[in-house]
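cron nightly-structures :: item 1 of 1
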Amino acid sequence: MKVELHCHSHHSKGEKIPWEAFMSPRDIMKLASRRGIFGVAITDHDTTYAWKEAKRAAKDYGVVFIPGMEISTKNGHLLGIGLNEHIQRKLPLEETVELIHDQGGIAVAPHPYDIRGQGVKGGIRHVDAVEVFNAMNLDRLSNRLAFNKAEEHGKSMVAGSDSHTSDMFGLAVNEVDAHDLDGVIRDVKTGKVTLDAKYMGVHTLMNWSKERLLRSYMDVMSYMNEHYSWPRAWVARKAMRNFVMSRGDASERFWRFMTNVGYGVSVAYSTLRFIAYY
């Protein structure tokens, strides 16, 4: 059975760019049913708001709902899978893991070595499983490093789509023999998981970024006006308008080119980090 262990609903919100994900919990369960995904953990950032709707929708579409959260600990992001209630953010990693275990859940380290620095890195020694394939880690070496370190520490390995849009959902899933929530928790904890994963396209990432900025347009503009100096704010506002309004023209081709440039830079940076670790 296929299980998605890392996805976000529209209840996940960012600080500078409020809109992060676009699907409702019901949309997610409906899409899971269509794509043959047996179980779904909605892991919104520091909130359980999706749970009530997701539980009802999962029953309607014959999908197993796995209550989860992506928790912002003091040491990086951590997935709590199979929870019963909300867990406070900004606690130390080890304390957060204990709270997850107290609820009968498992602690999974998502994208532990991502180039944004949001993972727990060496903190994986405290978790139950490591996300060794994150579909958004397009540099690839971040995932390779996670795999190597998980193997070194003898940790169970899982994949996660880290989906924020319908195009991303189900890209990186886990094959398990389980048929219920308890079985999924058991299989992940004991490493009885086969990964079925692929990366999202660079253009999917660009389209997501554009939609985020479009939906968060006024909030981002206000932030720039308040926190940026005049020259910087003027350049940033002009660039953002050009980006979100580009549609099949020279402007869009430019932004596609810049996206690929950014991808190349991330690979180069990730390569240097990978070498540094070894």
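cron nightly-structures :: done
Residues 203-277 form one domain.
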